[in-house]
């Protein structure tokens, strides 16, 4: 293991726990506060008391206060030092967009603190979230397993995440408004009861894309947007059946919507082979609210 590169990410990648374990990726949870009680976001470790998606959905529907926060820098310091003790000489730490969370900054503070220990830590702002981040983490883990150096592992993560697109449908803008992450979509608030917003992640920020009248139309737009993304990759056209494209579908308390969308995408893009369908955890869930559905498209990187 000496000389190898470890990969760290945070809980908002929403990698299934078995996937993270198989990749050897260390996951650091963000914090969730419900009714004044703070706990880590559930990452499936079973080793501590956490908040899961269901508890946050219940709190949101009951109009209880829910907030989120980054991990403390010391959590990253402890994580990096444990990896050093296991024999790793470098770490690539890949995190959700710095325009959405201070997690990247916490990781950078920790990287500076462990530098005197002789541990090189490269922190990557993925400019993404969910599996937009997760696909970058997978690319980093694959590069590390192949023996790549720290710079190449970090580059693999950044390139994959930046080549991903995210579109999100929310039932209401209210939860994004409460969390201060609504951006330019504030102009839509006056008609929030009569529209179904579709948002896109643009340069690391959630921005308004379209307004539609029904949730079914919103799902159709997510489908159309994902298919369009699968047909383009950095100026190159990929196969019409989705070859070279990875897709994930996220939801919060909307499994039927997510399964419907994933099924339609697989039917249209059979070469994708498999679509990861996961419920987002409480950190992202607290901002998008129950009923939200998102699609992540990681386009082919070409040759």
UniProtKB/TrEMBL annotation:
InterPro entries: DegV, DegV_C, DegV_domain_contain. Gene3D superfamilies: 3.30.1180.10, 3.40.50.10170. It holds the Pfam family DegV. Keywords: Lipid-binding. It comes from the Bacteria. Transmembrane segments: none annotated. NCBIfam families: DegV. This is DegV family protein. It comes from Kineosporia corallincola.
């Amino acid at each position: 293991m000496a000389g190898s590169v470890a990969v760290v990410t945070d809980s908002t990648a929403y990698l299934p726990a078995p996937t993270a374990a198989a990749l050897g990726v260390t996951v650091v949870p963000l914090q969730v506060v419900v009714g004044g009680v703070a706990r880590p976001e559930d990452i499936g470790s079973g080793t501590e008391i956490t908040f899961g998606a269901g508890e946050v959905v219940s709190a949101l529907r009951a109009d209880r206060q829910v907030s989120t926060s980054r991990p403390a820098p010391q959590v990253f310091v402890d994580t990096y030092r444990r990896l050093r003790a296991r024999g790793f000489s470098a770490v690539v730490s890949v995190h959700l967009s710095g325009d959405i969370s201070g997690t990247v900054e916490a990781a950078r503070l920790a990287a500076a603190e462990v530098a005197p220990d002789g541990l090189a830590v490269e922190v990557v702002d993925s400019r993404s979230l969910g599996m937009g981040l997760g696909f970058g983490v997978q690319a980093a883990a694959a590069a590390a397993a192949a023996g790549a150096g720290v710079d190449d592992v970090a580059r693999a993560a950044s390139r994959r995440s930046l080549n991903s697109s995210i579109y999100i449908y929310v039932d209401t803008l209210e939860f994004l408004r409460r969390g201060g992450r609504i951006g330019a979509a504030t102009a839509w608030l006056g008609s929030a009861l009569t529209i179904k917003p579709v948002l896109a992640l643009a340069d690391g920020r959630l921005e308004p894309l379209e307004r539609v009248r029904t949730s079914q139309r919103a799902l159709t737009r997510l489908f159309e947007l994902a298919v369009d993304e699968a047909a383009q990759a950095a100026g190159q056209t990929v196969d019409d059946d989705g070859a070279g494209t990875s897709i994930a579908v996220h939801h919060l308390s909307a499994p039927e919507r997510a399964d419907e969308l994933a099924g339609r995408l697989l039917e249209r893009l059979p070469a994708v082979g498999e679509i990861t369908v996961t419920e987002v955890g409480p950190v992202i869930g607290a901002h998008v609210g129950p009923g939200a559905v998102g699609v992540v498209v990681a386009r082919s990187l070409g040759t």
